[in-house]
Specification:
The protein is an alpha+beta fold. Among the domains are: 124 residues, no CATH class; 137 residues, Roll (PH-domain like); 94 residues, Pleckstrin-homology domain (PH domain)/Phosphotyrosine-binding domain (PTB) (PH-domain like); 147 residues, Cyclin A, domain 1 (Orthogonal Bundle), CATH 1.10.472.80; 198 residues, EF-hand (Recoverin, domain 1, Orthogonal Bundle), CATH 1.10.238. Helices cover 46% and strands 13% of the residues. It contains 43 helices and 25 strands. The strands form six sheets. It has a seven-stranded antiparallel sheet with strand order 9-8-7-6-12-11-10. A hairpin with a 2-residue loop joins strand 7 and strand 8. The longest helix is centred in the C-terminal third of the chain and has 31 residues.
Length: 1127
């Protein structure tokens, strides 16, 4: 066990210890009296001393000391009761610590680091896996976590570990904290503090790695920067939890997957380590046995299964779910089977001595399990679940049910199209047909030995039969079995018929795309030259689009489905499509084809590992990713003749994506010499296309009218390649690739692929936006990350947040991330360039309405950054114009589409980005940017009051606050006098007209006093305190004092304002009762030109708005506080 480091002054005190091993920094010692010299006189004396001097605790016979070459002081750091125990600690030190210590310059630093590391290991050994085992210790860790990182209390800490973080070549010993949304690390050693907080949704790489300096570590890449964590006592456990949390972030924020209330990951506020482990275990269980998504692993038992065909007991594990009893061997025999519990009719306990039980199945079959540790509990579980499992008749064809399906308004095909257009001829004695019958007989023998249907034993022999090729008559049945689609169909009886009725007659974008592609699906095959095949294909694709609108319809689905319909009934083809799209090829069939890109990245890794010669020749392997995309999307159907491609599909349904990866490697290996001679990509593509043209299936029994072999395959000068030989070679050379390894590579590369797509989106957005703003490239990059992070921050601590829908990767780049008003207001408050915060909320609301030009309640990055650019980088006139517009009535801003300040970009919507149109529009905006000031509407009196209050709020807290207040007061007074003079001149001219209205002559003269509203009451207080210079023109404007401040002196309190109110509150446009287009008689209004001309005469105001904004500090402030202000 590890010990708290304690000083030992004499290494060989009283000669009680013997050195067994030593290094520069550590010594392993054995106490005399133990081991080889235990029988000597010294051993007896030592044993006596241990007994007499310490009767309560016997000294451990082995220990490890730490020392430095330049010191005589030793520190005890570990002890053990046996050589094996202490050797484990010694080996761990050699592998994880020794090479690290060489980076330190002094012995004191080395000792300090070792002591910190050992204390961390001791604390970690006492750390529980969750808060259930040791709640007090975990509660203390939660308090440290909240104190150190300042995250909201709703952020759930999952677990924490002691580790070392590498910054350069120097390790920092500390603690890594793993929470639901963040990876955090804290270290404080030798006066140096290291604090890291990274969200999981920004992690692009997460993998275990090793190097000369680091024996084993975890590499985390965030925003292009690598971080290494090592010296973890439980490195694999830590890595798995980090992987699960990163995957959970992807599922929530990018896939937008939701969980039912009973799911352990349903609520992000209550995520626990145990819940993550349960979720990962259930996923692995369903993926291995190809079970429906509703199945969860309930119980696991280790046992032996009697295998009748080999007459041996096979060691493995029994896995029990809600409706299935599964077994998988562990001895390398690759034997597994799946038993639906509704097939079980009794459970017996024949031999309690061997802890055995027999499971009797329908059809006079029985399975015998032995050496089951808790066999009685297993028997009780199976008996209980047998009564609740689904009915066995779900998958049995019911003639009455089929007749109903045919009688519906949409007739459903109950025969595979191959049986309709190419029926099996039992009397045909063609050599190919004879070989086909031999295959059928081989499978019949296999069924007799290993069983048929769901309860069939799957072994190496099964795979050998698959590699040789599946008979045409059995292909549909075996596809259903190996893919797990049979379990889905059994669990959902009548589902396909119901969904067809629901989507009948519906119209959608997916339906239009399906109609467009129907006649492009295997057009050479007779089945799809008739209405029978086309109609069946339409029904299956439409039904799936209705079932899964998230995917809808994607190109390549039509090709795959058409092949499925050739060998499976229509309903079976539907469930096969479900199995492929939702389980076997996840995320393949969407607009971004993330799943295919992930598997291409896996393919590149395998090429580097297995085809090193090709890797050395072609340093950039992205060519193979582009050329192999169709291989993955269509399972080679698009590049191979149909008679050869179905053999590939056979292997895919049995081994999953592993079979496609193996075949891809075999294709490149077969063409290695030709590819090494290629000088460019086009030549390599030609080589591969020529190879695929030469692939044939010499054993195919299909007639020539059905086969799609190219003309090149019939050319005797070209060497032909048989598909069976190619597949066999793929399994022989690359069959060692394990499915678990492929799945781990998928998880690892999915992070990278998603972040690469996110980076591509960012670069495209910044390239478009950079043309219209004056921010530097670095500032734009940081502001984009703040904008994007604001979207995720608002979703971190909520279940199914509606804000998640504001991110839609299917939209054009500019609109993929958008903020609603709440998200926008929080970010605007952090980035607004003025010191005051008294008016920020209302100002942000007005800014949001102005920037949201199309009124959809969302603002994209371009709209946001254009508004921010005005406040940061534009001239005094542009800034004033922006503030002026904020106070205009909503619905009167048609000018905003013409004045060139805030424009809606042509990229809005789902259409393709038209860059030429954008550039043309941008050029037109530049030409008329300055000449449209006159087109701005006039601002009425209530809006003008809000405008002046906004100015007061902007100036509040600045060094020149008093002079700025005076300037606004002078401008306000001047504008009122100008308006009064203008009204008098207008009225005098109207009196000279004989036809003047009675209102203009009979009514008393109306002064421009403000209406008695709550807003104006606060402004009219204290008018006797005005300066003399402002009170002098009362003869011409007796009521101008109603808008002037109450005092010209600087406010005594930070929150006071010149109007006498506690804080200047902005009147948002929604509060204005009138519009500028219809000013009431007696009201006054101002044009933007008047306000601009008046303010230009106030140098202090101009200087304030022309002052350079410290963009770096504002961005740094926003980055630091973005999480703190999260609600």
């Amino acid at each position: 066990m590890w010990l708290k480091p304690e000083e030992v002054l004499l290494k060989n005190a009283l000669k009680l210890w013997v050195t067994e091993k030593s290094s520069d920094y550590f010594v392993l010692q054995r106490r005399r009296g133990y081991g080889e010299d235990s029988g000597g006189l010294t051993g007896l004396l030592v044993g006596t001393l241990d007994t007499v001097l310490d009767s309560t605790a016997k000294v451990a016979p082995f220990r490890i000391l730490h020392q430095t070459p330049d010191s005589q002081v030793y520190w005890s750091i570990a002890c053990g009761a046996s050589l094996e125990e202490i050797s484990q600690h010694w080996d761990w030190l050699q592998q994880n610590i020794i090479r690290t210590l060489s980076v330190f310059d002094s012995g004191e630093d080395i000792t300090s680091f070792v002591q910190g590391k050992i204390r961390g290991l001791i604390a970690e050994e006492g750390t529980s896996a969750g808060d259930e085992e040791d709640p007090e210790r975990f509660r203390e860790a939660v308090l440290r976590f909240e104190h150190l990182f300042g995250l909201p209390q709703r952020e759930k800490l999952v677990t924490y570990f002691s580790c070392s973080y590498w910054r350069g070549r120097v390790p920092h010993q500390g603690w890594i904290y793993l929470s639901t949304n963040f990876l955090c690390f804290y270290s404080y050693m030798l006066g140096n503090e290291v604090k890291l907080v990274y969200p999981w949704d920004e992690v692009s790489r997460l993998e275990r790695t090793s190097s000369v300096l680091l024996a084993e570590s975890i590499r985390v890449c965030v925003r292009g920067e690598d971080h290494y964590f090592s010296m973890l006592l439980r490195l694999q456990q830590t890595y798995l939890i980090m992987q699960q949390l990163a995957e959970y972030a992807i599922v929530r924020f990018f896939d937008k997957e939701t969980f039912n209330a009973e799911h352990p990951l349903a609520n992000p506020l209550h995520i626990m380590q145990k819940a993550l482990e349960i979720h990962a275990r259930n996923q692995s269980f369903r993926a291995f046995f190809r079970l429906p998504q509703e199945e969860n692993l309930c119980e696991v038992y280790e046992s032996f299964l009697w295998v009748p065909f080999s007459h041996v007991n096979t060691l493995g594990k029994i896995c029990v779910s809600e409706n299935y009893l599964c077994f998988a061997s562990q001895d390398g025999s690759q034997c597994h089977l799946i038993i639906p519990l509704w097939e079980v009719f009794s459970v017996e306990l024949p031999d309690r001595g061997s802890r055995a039980l027999s499971v009797c199945l329908r059809g006079k079959r029985a399975l015998r399990f032995s050496e089951v540790r808790d066999f009685e509990r297993l028997a009780a579980t199976i008996r209980r679940k047998c009564g609740t499992a689904g009915s066995p008749q779900h998958y049995i064809s019911n003639p009455d049910e089929e007749g109903v399906m045919v009688g519906q308004s949409q007739a459903v095909s109950t025969e595979a199209l191959m049986n309709v257009f190419h029926p099996h001829d039992a009397e045909n004695l063609d050599p190919k047909m004879l070989k086909e019958r031999m295959k059928e007989q081989s499978w019949e023998i296999h069924f007799a030995e290993y069983g048929r249907g769901s309860g069939m034993f799957c072994t190496k022999k099964t795979r050998d039969l698959i590699v040789r090729g599946v008979p045409e008559t059995l292909r549909g049945e075996l596809w259903m079995l190996f893919s797990g689609a049979v379990h889905d169909m059994t669990s959902h009886p009548g589902y396909y018929g119901r969904i067809l009725e629901e989507c009948m007659g519906s119209s959608s974008l997916a339906c239009d795309e399906i109609e467009r592609d129907l006649h492009r699906s295997l057009p050479e095959h007779p089945a799809f030259q008739s209405d029978t095949g086309i109609s069946a294909l339409r029904r299956v694709l439409t039904a799936y689009a209705h079932r899964n609108p998230k995917i809808g319809y994607c190109q390549a689905m039509n090709i795959l489905t058409s092949v499925l319909l050739l060998y499976a009934k229509e309903e079976e083809a539907f469930w096969l499509l479900v199995a492929v799209c939702e389980r076997m090829l996840p995320d393949y069939f969407n607009r971004r084809i993330i799943g295919a890109l992930v598997d291409q990245a896996v393919f590149e890794e395998l090429i580097r590992e297995h085809l090193t010669q090709l890797t050395e020749h072609m340093t950039d392997l992205s060519f193979f990713s582009s050329v192999s995309l169709s291989w993955f999307l269509t399972l080679f159907i698009s590049v191979l003749p149909i008679e050869s491609a179905v053999n590939v599909v056979d292997c895919f349904f049995y081994d999953g994506i592993k079979a496609i990866l193996q075949l891809g490697l075999a294709v490149l290996d077969y063409n290695m010499d030709s590819l090494l001679c290629c000088t460019d990509d086009a030549e390599a593509v030609t080589v591969l296309n020529r190879f695929f043209d030469s692939v044939t299936n010499k054993d195919s029994p299909l007639p020539a009218t059905v086969q799609q072999a190219s003309a090149a395959a019939n050319d005797k000068s070209i060497q032909k390649v048989d598909i069976s030989d190619l597949i066999k070679e793929a399994y022989e050379k690359y069959g060692s690739i394990r499915t678990e390894e492929v799945e781990n590579m998928r998880k690892r590369n999915k992070l990278y692929v998603i972040q690469t797509l996110e980076d591509t989106t960012k670069q495209n957005v910044l390239r478009v936006v950079a043309q219209d703003v004056k921010f530097s490239a670095a500032h734009l990059d940081e502001l984009y990350m703040l904008f994007k992070r604001q979207h995720f921050v608002s979703c971190y601590w909520s279940v199914g947040s509606p804000a998640l829908q504001n991110h839609d990767p299917s939209l054009p780049y500019l609109d993929q991330y958008q903020l609603d008003q709440s998200q926008f207001s929080s970010l605007f408050a952090l980035l607004q360039p003025w010191t005051t915060h008294t008016h920020v909320r209302s100002l942000a609301q007005s800014a949001f309405r102005l920037l949201d030009a199309n009124g959809d309640g969302l603002v994209n990055f371009k709209e946001f950054i254009c508004g921010l650019d005005i406040l940061y980088n534009r001239s005094f006139t542009e800034k004033l114009k922006f503030l002026f517009k904020l106070h205009l009535q909503p619905g009167t801003q048609e000018y905003s589409a013409e004045d060139g300040v805030i424009r809606k970009c042509p990229e809005r919507g789902r259409a393709k980005v038209d860059l030429q149109e954008y550039l043309k529009q941008w050029q037109e905006d530049l030409q008329r940017r300055e000449e449209n000031i006159k087109d701005l509407p006039r601002i009425n009196q209530v809006q003008f009051i809000g405008f002046t209050k906004t100015l007061y709020g902007v100036f509040h807290g600045t060094e020149e606050e008093e002079s700025l207040y005076r300037a606004v007061t002078r401008v306000t007074s001047l504008l009122l006098r100008m308006e009064e003079v203008g009204r008098k001149l207008q009225e005098s001219s109207l009196q000279k007209i004989p036809q003047s209205t009675p209102t203009s002559t009979d009514q008393p003269e109306t002064s421009p006093t403000l209406p008695t509203s709550p807003e104006t009451k606060t402004i009219t207080e204290g008018e006797g305190d005005q300066p003399e210079s402002l009170a002098s023109p009362q003869e011409t404007a007796p009521s101008h004092t109603d808008i002037t401040p109450t005092s010209t002196s600087r406010p005594s309190t930070p929150t006071s304002s010149p109007t006498g109110t506690s804080s200047p509150v902005l009147d948002t446009p929604t509060d204005t009762p009138s519009s500028p287009s219809s000013v009431r008689d007696g009201d006054w209004s101002f044009s933007f030109e008047q306000i601009l001309a008046s303010l230009l005469n106030e140098p202090s105001v101009v200087r304030f708005f022309e002052r350079a904004v410290d963009t770096d500090s504002l961005i740094a402030h926003a980055c630091k506080n973005q999480l703190k202000v999260a609600h």
